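Here is one chain, start to finish.
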Amino acid sequence: MKKKFFWRITLIALTAVISIVFFIPSTPLSYLAPEWLREYGLVLGLDLQGGVHLVYRVEGEKAVSNEIEKLSAKLRDILNAKGFKTEVKKEQLDIIITPSRRVESPTNSEIKSAVKDNYPYLTLADDSPDRLIYRLPASKISEIKDSSVDVALQTINNRIDQRGVKEPSIRKQGTDEIMVQIPGVKDAEQIIELIQRIALLEFKLVDTESPIAAQLPESVPPGGEGKVLQEFASSIPENDEILFGRVVDRETKEVIKKNVYLMKKEVLMTGEHLIEAKVSLDNMYNEPNISMSFDDEGAKEFERITEAHKYKNLAIILDNNVYSAPRIKEKISGGKAQIEGSFTLDEANDVAIALKSGSLKAPLENIHKVIVGPSLGRDSINAGILAGIIGSILVIGFMLFYYRFSGLIADFAMVLNIILLLGVLSIFKATLTMPGIAGIILAVGMAVDSNVLMFERIREELRLGKSPRAAIDSGY
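Its structure:
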């Protein structure tokens, strides 16, 4: 019997010691813990250590529009490869195919056959002699919208994870919303900018042959973009667009002007074949740039583009901002490219992370943003700890006063219960929030509640004349 009792005491003591050891990283004595132990401990939630609470709506309609734009471009290439003289363009959510009026133009049946062979899910909405109109079916539109939300969820997870943020909470909310909670983050605005960056990498040709290109100003001051767009809106060629690239002061890192480019709308290549993006330093100014590598298919495509457009300017565009537009002197093999843009080191890192994590299929609309200051969290922690200490003292004092030695046993069980609770939470790196602190305080009362019932029953049995041993057996 004594041996059995000894092993019980030993097991309880060992469990309590393990719990205390794993709880040390959560206390002011954390500096005493070895390196491996510091990985454990309680993680403070958003309401305790501050951070950001964000809710985004994924603009699925934009993802559908982008998909139709890509389909239009692919159909144009397919029909051109077959030698068909056609015009393919996107209008709202329609793909309009207009055969040439020449004698050698393809028949509608030939065009329909080519479309059906490559994209059988497209629905023919209008079949008139002078044009064909195709649309995406409702099921495909729904699939694209759902996919854009899933991609956004995965992309945000990747970006936050590569930023080294601990214990973020990122989950889908409803059909098209994503909730992001990041506790303890200090550079909240930088994190928000990283999350919302679409990271759409595009390669387009600069149109230097159009007469409008010579009329455009070389650069404008920041904020002057709207005036340029308004002035040249009616004269821009149908297949061209005006884009801008920022120029940053090397000393102050402020945007001092915006370069103006007349750009071909056709996207020669995107970042879908990107496999690596990392920050590197240039040799001349020791400024951070972003080096990119493409997979085999992307490398072949990049080589084909640079060979086909020798001596032209190929613009590297990220989220509609022109970072550089170097002149192609010769075909580029090996599938490598570089983005130069007067980055700060933090900006370059964030852009590299965004590129590596993939581009969003649709923009994110921030519909709710709350930044919680860490001072509020510290006040909450202090208030919670104070409430817990006062509550524990009152409970311990009452049990000692009312039940004497039995109360001491109950108090010991209560303290042991709290030690084990905190130890287990620390081992599993649980997130502690204000409701969690309230739950621990409640556990203080619950830990002695059953003891109160048992002690009262024991007193009743003693008043009936039973021996102490029999009364204790009946009580428990």
